[in-house]
């Protein structure tokens, strides 16, 4: 899908675009969502720069993600997608900055539509008059979105912490451990993806601020890049803090699972010890020997039952006295 946005008084405007027809005047942003081969060729002819394939975009070495080719500066970052789903993922998005227009190539939906809808409203930022301005606006929206994700992760981690360490009366509050472990794992996965996205975005910002082949960003662009770099660095520190907290919760949760298992084992051990003496008494008087004086006693049966009850009570009282129960 090819989506073009042109600068108009008051903001951006989505304009009609079709392969084979010239783009309208004032186009500053071309958004390619799962582009076809025909759309790739059309954009290449329009802006004079090649469009990378999906296989080229997912390569992780910096030389394949940050480079200059002809008139375009290529920057690829991994952005979070499908955050509201149970399985969020990272998707590679390539930003091609050319003098004519900014081209974004993506194969997923990292909430670019939200930025586009705000940019198309009246009284939008005047910086959206150039491809560089649109690129910085996109980066700013991505940073805000990542910050929101980390805030949600932090809030949910606090709720998990309260649930895990909650106490009801004298006994620990118990919740199915499987559910809690799954929730901790999902928060840890989302946080790690947010941090990985910030790392790639930090590299892109540093690359954009550098002078390459005699071409350097304008002073206004450099001025806007500095606070973005500080924001990214701050968010990475916060993501590291959340990662440490999630790791602590996971260790605490596993420790509680071990304690619960120990309680179960201890209960069975105590029950075995309590019922061992009565079993011994019953075994002795269950022997079929003729020369057993107790067999002729009138009160032999209640006496044996009394021994069995007493032999079970005494170990229990001893365990309670030693505070093993």
Task: Note down, in words, how this protein is organized.
The chain has 325 residues and is an alpha+beta fold. It has 2 domains: 258 residues, Beta Polymerase, domain 2, CATH 3.30.460; 56 residues, Magnesium transport protein CorA, transmembrane region (Methane Monooxygenase Hydroxylase, Chain G, domain 1), CATH 1.20.58.340. Helix content is 56%, strand content 16%. The chain has 8 helices and 9 strands. A hairpin with a 2-residue loop joins strand 4 and strand 5. Helix 5 runs antiparallel to helix 6, helix 6 packs antiparallel against helix 7 and helix 7 packs antiparallel against helix 8. The longest helix has 66 residues. The radius of gyration is 34 Å and the shape is rod-shaped. It catalyses: Mg(2+)(in) = Mg(2+)(out). One of its GO terms (molecular function) is magnesium ion transmembrane transporter activity. Keywords: Cell inner membrane, Cell membrane, Ion transport, Magnesium, Membrane, Transmembrane, Transmembrane helix, Transport.
């Amino acid at each position: 899908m090819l989506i073009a946005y042109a600068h108009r008084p008051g903001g951006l405007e989505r304009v009609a675009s079709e392969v084979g027809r010239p783009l309208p005047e004032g186009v500053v942003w071309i958004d390619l969502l799962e582009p076809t081969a025909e759309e790739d060729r059309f954009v290449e002819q329009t802006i004079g720069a090649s469009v990378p394939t999906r296989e080229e975009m997912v390569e992780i070495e910096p030389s394949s993600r940050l480079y200059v080719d002809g008139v375009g500066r290529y920057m690829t970052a991994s952005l979070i997608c499908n955050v509201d789903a149970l399985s969020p993922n990272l998707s590679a998005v390539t930003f091609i900055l050319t003098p004519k227009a900014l081209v974004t190539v993506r194969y997923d939906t990292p909430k670019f539509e939200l930025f586009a809808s705000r940019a198309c409203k009246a009284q939008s930022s005047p910086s959206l008059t150039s491809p560089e301005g649109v690129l910085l606006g996109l980066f700013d929206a991505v940073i805000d979105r990542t910050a929101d994700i980390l805030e949600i992760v932090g809030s949910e981690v606090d709720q998990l912490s309260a649930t895990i360490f909650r106490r009801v009366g004298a006994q620990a509050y118990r919740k199915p451990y499987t559910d809690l472990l799954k929730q901790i794992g999902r928060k840890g996965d989302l946080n790690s993806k947010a941090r990985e996205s910030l790392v790639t975005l930090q590299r892109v910002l540093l690359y954009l601020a550098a002078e390459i082949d005699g071409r350097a960003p304008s002073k206004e662009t450099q001025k806007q890049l500095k606070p973005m770099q500080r924001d990214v660095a701050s968010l990475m520190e916060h993501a590291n803090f959340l990662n440490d907290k999630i790791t602590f919760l996971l260790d605490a949760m596993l420790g509680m699972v071990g304690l619960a298992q120990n309680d179960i084992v201890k209960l069975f051990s105590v029950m075995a010890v309590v019922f061992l003496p009565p079993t011994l008494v019953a075994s002795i008087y269950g022997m079929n020997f003729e020369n057993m004086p107790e067999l002729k006693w009138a009160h032999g049966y209640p006496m044996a039952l009394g021994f069995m009850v007493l032999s079970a009570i005494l170990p229990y009282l001893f365990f309670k006295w030693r505070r093993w129960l």
